[in-house]
Design brief:
Helix content is 29%, strand content 27%. The strands form five sheets. A six-stranded antiparallel β-sheet has the order 1-3-2-10-9-8, with helices on both faces. β12 and β13 form a beta hairpin. α2 crosses α5, α2 runs parallel beside α7 and α5 crosses α6. The protein is elongated.
């Protein structure tokens, strides 16, 4: 069954089954098209539990990059391959037991070449063991609202009696979280590179990097049981889209489906900044404040997803208090910005004070009165 679902701010803006017809040829067993902000534009069996193969590694990369960005790890950290990591099959960089490599090169090997051994080495480094890291993976998935996901290893390989299962929707959620870390694109956009001081070559498994305008990643996957999978991300005109397909019959079908989905998204939707052209002042006067004015800003300046036709008729109305009475607290609501397309309200955003302004004390007021009297004399 195929259907289209809008995001929170785009509700009622989709045109129903007429748009679904544009993607009626999707061959994937499961698919979803979503913005980085979580707004779903298209889905097809998006909640069916399937094997993700190496797309599993987006969670491995997320946990590692979160550790780096939070200061708990460094790209220069040394990762040592265990015997277990070295015995991984499938796509690999052929790590030897005891071999060391920087976290930077390990992440490069995972993102570009889909190295199963590198993924295991990174997992054991951060989790203390494979089991420890898998526990971290599943805990993070739950935090992200992934209700159909159960990881069993950090690389997506089939194991005896255990299989990683997830859904296209969950993979899109994990991808969106990973995309918040711009650092990931340092790896996922690499076409070719090397590790081991140039001795071992890497070639990106995502050939759409050279075939699709704006492609930024993210991760391919394949096993004979899982079929061909991908979480494909692309950016155009400030809009980031995620197209996930699972259980495709071959690479051509996989690439054709995500291309069709991304084309559909970029052709029909755009991101509109609520404040553009809104004539929003930078400050408001403050009565009886120790400052004459208080700076103001939008509490939420995130863009709104709209159909391109809707975006052409946008109207913005600013509703503000004429003046503020001290004391003014940072974050205090001082007005609203209302965005409409025709008679339909698209977004309503609070305008708040971006600084605190204290009220004048009695002594402040007395001093000012005395200054005025002295000036008159």
């Amino acid at each position: 069954m195929k259907k289209l679902i809008s995001g929170i701010l785009a509700v009622c803006l989709l045109a129903g089954s007429s748009y679904a017809a544009e993607l009626s040829g999707i061959q994937a067993k499961s698919a979803i098209l979503m913005t980085k902000e979580g707004q779903v534009l298209f889905e097809q069996n998006a909640d069916e539990s399937l094997q993700p193969a190496s797309v599993t590694k987006i969670m491995t990369m997320l946990l590692a990059i979160e550790a780096i960005d939070e200061g708990r790890a460094s790209l220069e950290d040394t990762i040592t391959a265990s015997a277990h990591a070295a015995e991984m099959g499938g796509t690999q960089i052929y790590l030897k037991e005891g071999e060391t490599m920087s976290l930077d090169d390990m992440l490069k090997s995972i993102a570009v070449a889909s190295a199963n051994d590198a993924a295991m080495a990174v997992a054991e480094h951060f989790g203390g063991s494979e089991e420890g890291f898998v526990s971290m993976m599943n805990e993070r998935a739950q935090e992200l609202g992934c209700t159909g996901t159960a990881f069993v290893n950090p690389n997506g390989l089939d194991t005896d009696g255990e299989k990683t299962l997830t859904t296209a929707r969950d993979l899109a959620k994990i991808s969106a979280e990973l995309m918040k870390h711009e650092r990931v694109y340092d790896y996922t956009t690499i076409w070719m590179d090397t590790v081991r001081n140039g001795e071992f070559s890497l070639a990106n498994t995502n050939k759409l990097l050279r075939q699709y305008k704006g492609m930024t990643g993210l991760k391919t996957g394949y096993t004979s049981e899982a079929g061909f999978c991908i979480s494909a991300t692309a950016r155009r005109d400030g809009m980031d889209l995620i197209a996930v397909v699972m259980a495709e019959k071959d690479k051509n079908a996989r690439n054709a489906d995500v291309t069709a989905m991304l084309n559909y998204g970029f052709a029909n939707y755009t991101m509109v900044a609520p404040e553009d052209g809104a004539q929003l002042p930078k400050s408001l006067p403050v009565v009886l404040g120790r400052q004459k004015e208080a700076a103001i800003e939008l509490a939420d300046d995130s863009s709104v997803l709209l159909e391109k036709q809707q975006a052409e008729g946008i109207e913005r109305t600013v509703e503000l208090e004429e003046a503020l009475c001290a004391p003014v607290k940072q974050g205090q609501k001082v007005g609203e910005l209302v965005v409409k397309a025709g008679d339909q309200e698209i977004a309503r955003r609070e305008i708040v004070a971006s600084e605190t302004v204290e009220a004048k004390s009695i002594s402040d007021i007395f001093r000012e009165l005395m200054e005025i009297l002295l000036m008159k004399n």
